[in-house]
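Internal tracking record. Fields below are filled automatically when a chain is submitted to the structure queue. Please do not edit lines marked as system-generated. If the sequence contains nonstandard residues, flag them in the REMARKS field before resubmitting.
Queue: standard
Priority: normal
Entity type: single polypeptide chain
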Amino acid sequence: MGDITLFGLPISFGTMIYQALIFTVLVFILKKLVFKKLVEVLDSRKQHIENQLQLTDQYKQEAEKNLELSAEVLNQARKDAREIMRHSEHEARLMILDAKAQAKEILMEVKEKSFRSQSFVHKDSKGA
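SYSTEM-GENERATED OUTPUT FOLLOWS
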């Protein structure tokens, strides 16, 4: 085969055909061995990332549900606490009113006994 020069460089068609054949064989070998494994690894990695994204979405939804549930429980607890406080205040007022009523009764009894004692002492002093 003849040699030619291109841009001042010698080109041999025999060497060019030989290099093209070696390149084709190399591409075929790489395609069968390396590229296939590389594509499998990349597909596996892609699938793993998609699974992780799905799990992330699932966990995010669960977290949002738990947050809503926590807020509901907290609101109910606050409502219950207010109700307990109202009930306790009402009970305290009733106890205070009851204690005042008992104190009045005791005071009235003491006054009555004191009055009787004074009447008895006064009668005794007149009778003696």
